[in-house]
Every structure is written in C-alpha cells, then in structure tokens.
Amino acid sequence: MTILKNLAVFLTALSAFADVSVGTPVAAPLAESLPRATCTNPVLRKEWSAATAAERSSYISAVLCLATKPSRINLSTTLYDDFVYVHNSLTDRIHGVAQFLPWHRYFIHVYEQALKDCGYTGVAMYWNWAADSAAPSAAKVWSPVDGFGGNGNQSTPDVPFSKCVTDGPFTGLTLAYYNTEVRPHCLMRDFQPAHPEAGLQDMIGFQFTPEIVAEVSAYPDFSSFHGALESRPHAVVHAGVSGDMGPATSPNDPIFFLHHTMVDRIWWLWQQQNPSVRTNDFSGTEYAGVAATLDDLMPMMGIATDRKVGDFMSTSTTDLCYKY
C-alpha cells in the first residue's frame, strides 16, 4: 500500500539524513551556561485553533517577515532560510539521538524570539495533530484565510517540485534550500491520501492518534520515551504532510514549528507526570555513540549561542518561562 511504503521510506530516511554543504556559515560562538532561575509567571502556549484571529494573523505576518530579514550566519539568503540551513546541516547530531528533544526545544525558542523581532507579541503555538488525527487535512491550521494554506498542487504528480501550495499566505514564498541542494522553489506539500477501504485516514492519521500519544507517554524513562516519540508520531506527521516536510530541510514549511511545539508539549506533559525526577531525566547516546549528559552542548551554528542541554530541560526557567 502506497501510504505505508511512503511511511517506511521516511522512517528509513530519519536515521540516514545526509549533511548539507551549502553556503558559508560563521563559526559558532562559545557555549554559555546561565543559571536556571525559575520564572514566576510562565506564559501559556496556545493551540492554533484556540488563538484569536488577530493572534493568528500576527503570527503569519511575523513568519513572512523573516523572509525579508538578512541572514544571521553570513549566508546569501534570508533569516527564514537560516533556520532551514541550520536544521539540515546538523541533522545527524539532532535526530536519532538524546539531544533531539532539548535541541528542538531550544530551536523553537530561537524561532519564537525571531518572530518577536518581527513584531509578534504572542506565544509559540502548536498544532494538536492528535486531536485532528481522524481527519488531519481538515484541520484549522490548513485554512487559506487564517492558517498556513492547504495541500500542494496535485495536477502533475510526477513532475519534480510541482506540488506547490496553491492557497493561503505562503503561495508566493520562494525557499532557498531543499535537502542537500541550493534549490530555489515554492513551498510544497503532498498530503498522503486516505484509504477508506482499509479504514485509514489521510496523512497517515491512524499513526498519531491520542491513543498512540498515550502509548508513547507511558514509557517510564527518558531514553525509551524520546525514542518512541521521535520515531512514531513525530516522524509520521512529517511523512503525512510530506513535500517540504519530508527531508531535513523541513523548516521550509512553517507548519514545522507548530508540529515541533506539539512534540515539545508531549515531552512537557510527560515531564509533569513526575517533575522531581523527569525534569532532569536525560540519557542515551549522542552523535557517534557518545554517552549523553546534561553538560552536552547544543550547537546552533551562530543563529543563537550554543547552550548546554541542562539549560533547557525545564520550561520554567527565566530563559523559556512557558507552560502548556
């Protein structure tokens, strides 16, 4: 069945991403480890459909603003593309390793601050794809009016780079990178189809249901939990949306950040089950099989200061100061 073959291909690719070698980034700054003071009034991150129309509009405007800002890391492309470049360049150091969750937590924070520099005054938002798993392509996040636009063009399915998003605010956006190439292109999506005859939802929704999230969240230790979360619902959502969400240049699609904020929410909820233990529960291996520790540095390639894992295990620090 095509939908399952696509999923299998994506899961294989997840563990075999290639490095990208385009552009000339600046050298990463020295690591910084700040005191993890507790904030007193954490903000509540919102689900996209729970935000007001004004909040959604402001968020979208700030995302588009990023594409008008110069690169922070000496690329010839934009700040929007910096996030794509960094994520892709570091892919084997941030996927399939213990650092997957804390690194992406920090990455979302850096992105949120960039949106604020573009005038956004709200919070990072998430797409609750588990709640929408029965019919993911009908979710409010895909609205062309106050969302991210819908599926890509399906009229020429065999033509490379032809599945451009046809509605919504990102239809005119030109993206710089694709996989390991400098390849200017439109924002692409390729929603995986439903198979009603087999009872399977579109976007492989049967693999990221609330029941799947509950199964993943039942793992008692960080090592098993983060592996299940990354390889199961996280990976399947990427595969279900497909297009630019497929390769390691997936931050090309602005839905990437709502997806990963949902992943962060699942981790946060898991931590809240036993906060005295799980706030600093971190184990497993890093790149090249090195044992993971809270003192490991999370590289950001100059888009932000490299920081230690331990600085981002709690969302109640003055750095982050948010909850779900």
Automatic annotation (TrEMBL):
Residues 1-23 form the signal peptide. The keyword Metal-binding applies. The keyword Signal applies. Pfam families: Tyrosinase. Residues 253-264 form the Tyrosinase copper-binding domain. Gene3D superfamilies: Di-copper center containing domain from catechol oxidase. Keywords: Copper, Metal-binding, Signal. GO terms for molecular function: metal ion binding; oxidoreductase activity. This is Tyrosinase copper-binding domain-containing protein. It comes from Venustampulla echinocandica. The lineage of its organism: Eukaryota, Fungi, Dikarya, Ascomycota, Pezizomycotina.
